[in-house]
């Protein structure tokens, strides 16, 4: 059953008097309890997608298309419904937990305020609930933590607190926007394990935004790859790694150094990632693509089904017949 | 040839020990990786090697010259600059926002080669730019007109301008997009092959460490927990912390299952 | 709950830059330029001798050739205003120039060397900031004796802490950037890095703060002259004119005090607005 559905989502932001397109038509469905990865480099507007879903776009943003949550039109929500939507339907966890917490208020204040306001709980009950929530994210000595201030906790613990706070409203969808990027590798593994467990025990749907394909694949059922404000490939995470279809996905997987072995040379993708507003009329990846033909520059490719994948590439079908090694992109 | 020799290096800030008893060496044309997470002391070691911090105890020698104490004379500072250069992590803060690649390199060249005339300096700037893969337009562009990867190329060119024997790469590729990171890693490997420079790679990214380094040193809380050839450290880690780091690297299709302990 | 993790939405820096200066900023810049030109050429374009006394014309209103009328001693008001612009407007420039030079040197040195020097500078600044600048200047002039040079120097010194405090925080931020470390590792002399790299990058903030300080200096120097501690009568000066016009105000002839006062307010206001706009623009440019 589809929980969240994005249909031809376009977003334009006013920047210095002119308009800049940041999302160029995003279609994405997330089923109840499903985890979907949204992976892209800088300029891909992956975070803007999350902001559009939670209706937290900068002032002046123009949104086109449809966002449906549980069949309900999110873009049409009034002020009061929007508050309920953000409190009980969709919760967001950002990259930097320190930015989310007020440094002069305790963890307890932070957690309990939300519980009192959104759930209407009396203080004592809210504290008990807060301790339960902390236990759920793997913090056992919750009573003590509630009395502590953000600066007394490590980044990993703070991110758990923020996740606990996100759970307070019993949301059905969690938007995690690079939740581990500011953390150490070993802490990252812990946070990812917690998110993974939460979504299993609570049946929580998860939109996991990351720049790391491997990380997304480790907890997401399906992964969407974004480039220049649109999805260029979407398929099951394991399939995406086994048989990537879009030259950009192939390039990203090939460019990453391998933890198992040193390669004689990395298969770098030439050029720079493009921002959505810089995208040409044809395929946005054309300039960096080894398989680019005239049609790629002329026509904007559509997201089309190719066996198990959705791919936005004119050449995907032709390239499929080649061996995977051939499709690995230019060596620069 | 032994480029760097670090012997029982320690650094404390007040009563906090940042680095304790760290020793290692670096041979010409090779790369030593210093691996650790935040608070491991890896950045403090880098700053001591670069002369930006003074060690509390221990000895640092680069190209045979002791640099455990701050340089006193200007000529001594310039000599040290030609022995070791550093490339930082953040390409947005590591360049003077008012200097283009050309003016930046020109300033460095004038300092190290006072005898060089304007034409010779311009030729060398062009040479360094092409070595780091920057075109003519990018040579005269201000940092804000360049992308992250291009800025990092400028930072590498600036370090190379002093023709150092050792380059210290302090998380130099971690802030870059994956597709650009691969370009820079290839570039660094090319430079090493072409010039015989030795790298000290400070990184938390084990895949990058595997790709670029010959030997690795794993730091935890300022102490060395494991030290050896990179392939051995990563394939047969002996210390539990190294194993933890190794197991924390995400891999597709493997559910994260680490017990969540606070 | 989610509302709590909403990051602050701030305008992108390009939009901030475009709107930061605005009409008011451009208008105040124009006022400052006009006043500066008048201050430079005022005495030469004055239609009459600003010192020429004509007791018969005491408190006369405007007439042909005397657009603003006469003061108590029958001197041409417009000419005195134009001539007075020099001390009233260029005096503060000297004061602020001095404070900026000394203040930013101290600030950059403190930010660069850090440790004990920075702690000492901060301690001294905190104490100095506890005294109002004008009071300090009054005390100094009381000891040294009145006159324009003494008043200028006293105010200049009084503004050093204000300047130094702001520039120090900007310099600290700049010195903490990696490129400064990279240049140190290159073996560049400290003075060169500070003067050729750090200072130019914080220059816009220094200029903005200088413009703000000019607003205070204009008012404070006029106040000293008004109190009889700065410019001495009969030399024309706006502060002196406000004071001299007081007797006229009592007799129902407020023209002298009013025109000089209006000039002071406009000048101070223009400097203030300009400074604020410049500083706001710096902040916009930094928030990338």
Automatic annotation (TrEMBL), chain A:
Residues 6-253 form the ABC transporter domain. The keyword Cell inner membrane applies. Coiled coil: none annotated. Keywords: ATP-binding, Cell inner membrane, Cell membrane, Membrane, Nucleotide-binding, Translocase, Transport. One of its GO terms (biological process) is peptide transport. One of its GO terms (cellular component) is plasma membrane. It holds the Pfam family ABC_tran. It is a peripheral membrane protein. It is found in: Cell membrane. It comes from the Bacteria. One of its GO terms (molecular function) is ATP hydrolysis activity. InterPro entries: AAA+_ATPase, ABC_Ni/Peptide_Import, ABC_transporter-like_ATP-bd, Oligopep_ABC_C, P-loop_NTPase. Gene3D superfamilies: P-loop containing nucleotide triphosphate hydrolases (3.40.50.300). Transmembrane segments: none annotated. PANTHER family: ATPASE AAA-TYPE CORE DOMAIN-CONTAINING PROTEIN (PTHR43297:SF14), OLIGOPEPTIDE TRANSPORT ATP-BINDING PROTEIN APPD (PTHR43297). NCBIfam families: oligo_HPY. Belongs to the ABC transporter superfamily. This is ABC transporter ATP-binding protein. It comes from Kribbella turkmenica. The lineage of its organism: Bacteria, Bacillati, Actinomycetota, Actinomycetes, Propionibacteriales.
């Amino acid at each position: 059953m589809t929980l969240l559905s994005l249909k031809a989502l376009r977003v334009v932001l006013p920047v210095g008097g002119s308009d800049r397109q940041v999302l160029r038509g995003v279609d994405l469905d997330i089923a109840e309890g499903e985890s979907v990865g949204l992976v892209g480099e800088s300029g891909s507007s992956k975070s803007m997608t999350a902001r559009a879903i939670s209706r937290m776009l900068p002032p002046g943003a123009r949104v086109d298309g449809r966002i449906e949550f549980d069949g309900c039109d999110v873009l049409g929500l009034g002020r009061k419904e929007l508050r309920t939507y953000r409190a009980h339907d969709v919760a967001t966890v950002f990259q930097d937990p320190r930015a989310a917490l007020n440094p002069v208020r305790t963890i307890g204040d932070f957690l309990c305020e939300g519980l009192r306001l959104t759930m209407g709980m009396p203080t004592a009950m809210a504290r008990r609930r807060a301790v339960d929530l902390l236990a759920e994210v793997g913090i056992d000595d919750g009573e003590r933590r509630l009395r502590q201030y953000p600066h007394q906790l490590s980044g990993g613990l703070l991110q758990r607190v923020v996740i606990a706070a996100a759970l307070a409203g019993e949301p059905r969808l969690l938007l995690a926007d690079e939740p581990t990027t500011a953390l150490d590798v070993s802490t990252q593994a812990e946070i990812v394990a917690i998110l993974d467990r939460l979504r299993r025990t609570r049946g929580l749907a998860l939109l996991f935004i990351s720049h790391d394909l491997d990380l997304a694949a480790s907890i997401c059922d399906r992964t969407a790859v974004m480039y220049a404000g649109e999805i260029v490939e979407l398929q099951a995470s394991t399939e995406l790694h086994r048989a990537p279809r879009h030259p950009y996905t192939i390039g990203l997987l090939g460019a990453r150094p391998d933890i198992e072995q040193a390669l004689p040379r990395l298969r770098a993708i030439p050029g720079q990632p493009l921002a959505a507003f810089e995208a040409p009329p044809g395929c946005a990846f054309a300039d960096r693509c080894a398989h680019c033909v005239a049609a790629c520059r002329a026509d904007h490719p559509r997201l089309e089904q190719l066996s198990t994948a959705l791919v936005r590439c004119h050449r995907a079908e032709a390239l499929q017949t080649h061996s995977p090694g051939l499709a690995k992109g230019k060596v620069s | 040839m032994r480029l760097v020799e670090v012997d029982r290096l320690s650094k404390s800030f007040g009563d906090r020990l940042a680095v304790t008893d760290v020793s290692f060496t670096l041979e010409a044309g090779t790369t030593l990786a210093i691996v650790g997470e935040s608070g491991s002391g890896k950045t403090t070691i880098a700053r001591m090697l670069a002369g930006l911090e003074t060690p509390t105890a221990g000895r640092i020698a680069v190209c045979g010259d002791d640099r455990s104490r701050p340089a006193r004379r200007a000529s001594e500072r310039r000599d040290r600059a030609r022995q070791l250069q550093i490339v930082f992590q953040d390409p947005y803060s590591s360049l003077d926002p008012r200097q283009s690649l050309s003016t930046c390199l020109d300033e460095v060249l004038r300092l190290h080669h006072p005898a060089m005339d304007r034409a010779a300096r311009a030729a060398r700037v062009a040479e360094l730019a092409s070595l780091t893969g920057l075109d003519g337009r990018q040579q005269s562009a201000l940092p804000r007109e360049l992308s992250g990867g291009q800025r990092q190329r400028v930072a590498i060119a600036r370090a190379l301008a002093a023709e150092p024997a050792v380059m210290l790469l302090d998380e130099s590729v971690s802030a870059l997009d994956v597709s650009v990171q691969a370009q820079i890693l290839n570039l660094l490997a090319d430079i090493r092959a072409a010039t015989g420079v030795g790298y000290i790679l400070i990184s938390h990214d084990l895949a990058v460490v595997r790709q670029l380094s010959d030997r690795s040193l794993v730091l935890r809380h300022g102490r060395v927990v494991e030290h050896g050839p990179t392939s051995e450290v990563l394939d047969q880690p002996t210390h539990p912390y190294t194993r933890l780091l190794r197991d924390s690297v995400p891999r597709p299709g493997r559910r994260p299952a680490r017990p969540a302990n606070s | 709950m989610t509302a709590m993790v909403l990051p602050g939405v701030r305008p992108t820096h390009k939009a901030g830059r475009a709107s930061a200066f605005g009409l008011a900023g451009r208008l105040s810049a124009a006022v400052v330029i006009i006043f500066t030109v008048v201050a430079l050429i005022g005495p030469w374009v004055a239609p009459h001798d600003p010192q020429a006394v004509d007791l018969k014309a005491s408190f006369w209103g405007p007439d042909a050739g005397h657009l603003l009328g006469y003061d108590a001693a029958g001197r041409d008001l417009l000419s005195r205003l134009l001539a007075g612009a020099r001390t009233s407007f260029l005096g503060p420039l000297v004061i602020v120039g001095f404070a900026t030079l000394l203040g930013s040197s101290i600030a950059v040195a403190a930010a660069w060397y850090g440790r004990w020097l920075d702690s000492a500078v901060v301690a001294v600044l905190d104490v100095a900031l506890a005294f109002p600048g004008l009071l300090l200047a009054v005390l100094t002039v009381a000891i040294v004796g009145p006159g324009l040079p003494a008043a200028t120097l006293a105010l200049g010194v009084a503004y050093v802490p204000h300047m130094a405090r702001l520039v120090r925080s900007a310099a600290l931020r700049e010195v903490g950037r990696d490129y400064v470390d990279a240049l140190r590792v290159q073996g560049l002399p400290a003075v060169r890095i500070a003067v050729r790299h750090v200072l130019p990058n914080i220059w816009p903030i220094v200029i903005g703060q200088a413009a703000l300080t000019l607003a205070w200096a204009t008012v404070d120097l006029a106040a000293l002259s008004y109190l009889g501690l700065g410019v001495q009568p009969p030399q024309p000066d706006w502060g002196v004119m406000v004071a001299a016009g007081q007797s006229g105000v009592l007799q129902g002839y407020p023209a002298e005090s009013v025109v000089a006062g209006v000039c002071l307010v406009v000048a101070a206001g223009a400097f203030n607005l300009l400074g604020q706009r410049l500083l706001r623009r710096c902040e916009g440019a930094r928030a990338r």
